[in-house]
Amino acid sequence: MSEAQTAPPTTSGQPTGRSWRTALRALELDTRLLGMIGALAVIWLFFNFVSGGNFLTPRNLWNLSVQSSSIAIMATGMVLIIVSRNIDLSVGSMLGLLGYTMAMVQVNWLPNVLGVSYHEPYIWVVALLVGLVMGAVIGGITGFIVSYGGVPSFIVTLGGLLVWRGLIFRYAQGQTLAPLNETFQLFGGGPKGALGDVASWVLGLLACAGIVYTLWSGRRRKRRYGFPVRAMWAEVVVGVVGCVVVLVAVWVANSYSWPEALATQYAVEHGITEPPGGLIIPTGIAIPVVVMLGVGLVMTYIATRRRFGRYVYAIGGNPDAAELGGINVRRTIMLTFVLMGILAAVSAAVQTARLNAAVTNLGVQNELDVISAAVIGGTSFAGGIGTIPGAILGAFVMQSLRSGMLLLNVDSPTQDIVVGMVLVAAVGFDSYVRRRGG
Q1: 7 is a domain residue
Q2: What is the pLDDT of residues 133-147, one digit of tens each?
Q3: 29 lies in a domain?
Q4: pLDDT (tens digit per residue) in 257-292
């Protein structure tokens, strides 16, 4: 045999360049996730072209990130629900009930019962704790009926969709509750509900350090247990690309400045002399986005590194085998609904704070957006397949479609038609991939 035939293809540690498939295999990246990123890039470029460059602006991208946060937070929990071969149709109504409850705590209950003003700085803590506990209880009731009562999750959560929405009107006859605590409002974003430029850059650098540490620790852990590791060039590419994406996102967030009137008001309140061109105050990363990223990290850790997450995927893959393997299937499924209730409370805080009010139609149709985000992100209704990052990307895809069509003055019914077609196409593609894999 010749020397060219016997030499290993990657002796220099560099990719051979024979095919993109070889390079992707060396990078060990999730091809579905890459497909989602590619689809998101195509959507962004298309809407930017047809809107005359109005889509890829710091203002629109900043608003897009805030609008996607609430759906993305709940979508991370919906992944585990669907992976376990269940569904939760009540998350939109649950969000509305929890948001209304937290507003009631601030506007009615504490001021009228204890005589505490909603301006007190600790009010938001009490309201958020009430929402989280109530969300866990509602999720626990739903999960108990599904897992221990043997009632299909579709029926239980469909009933919850009606019950929780009806309770909102029973609270205060459908009144709008406003305004809310000033600190609580920061959860909704806005110019004041953001980190600012310095804190955003610090967060970005910490995220880059986290990416590098994750790659390094994962490589060391694989070597310790004798698993194959990626080529060093692949590790460097993944780390550099990840850090570049993070820093570009921070730069875009800082490029969006406060509105001129609000900046002028800030200058007057703080005795600052405005320069000739006006006072420029970078907004930075919005607090709802920070909350979403934190939830995403925690949920990814639970899904991939904790026993509970592995149990959920095992149940979705084969419930009978999981039970024979010693997994408490009923308890695990109930806990997935408890977790979903907690995440609905976090999302309710974000949406209610963003409106600075609780309204009766809060969360209407959110269940469809949440399920769509999870499915478009690669979660399979057949169970056992789904990722947290994919669901977050799915939420951004959903909101990008709506935001782009809104820029083009597309009416709401047409937006629903397009989103529905995308959802069906995503499920169809998943079925096609599964058949080919089989």
Answers
A1: no
A2: 999 999 999 999 999
A3: no
A4: 998 888 888 888 888 888 887 888 999 999 999 999
307 in the same domain as 250:
no
Nearest of 418, 430, 425 to residue 378 by alpha carbon: 430
Phi, psi of 53 (to 5 degrees): 85, 15
Distances (CA, A) of 97 to 146, 346, 364: 21, 12, 11
Q: Which domain holds residue 299?
A: 62-194+286-367
Within this chain, do residues 135 and 156 fall inside the same structural domain, yes or no?
A: yes
pTM more than 0.85? yes
For 378-411, b where at least 16 C-beta lie within 10 A, e where not — what string? bbbbebbbbbbbbbbbbbbbbbbbbbbbebeeee
Q: Is residue 231 part of a domain?
A: yes
Contact 383, 83 (CB under 8 A): yes
Residues 203, 83, single domain; the answer is no
Q: Are 236 and 337 in a shared domain?
A: no
Tens digit of each residue's pLDDT (9 = 90 or more) over 26-77: 667 777 778 888 889 999 999 999 999 999 999 999 999 999 999 999 999 9
The predicted-structure confidence for 330-351, as pLDDT tens digits, reads as follows 999 999 999 999 999 999 999 9
Query: For the chain, what is the radius of gyration of the CA atoms?
Result: 24
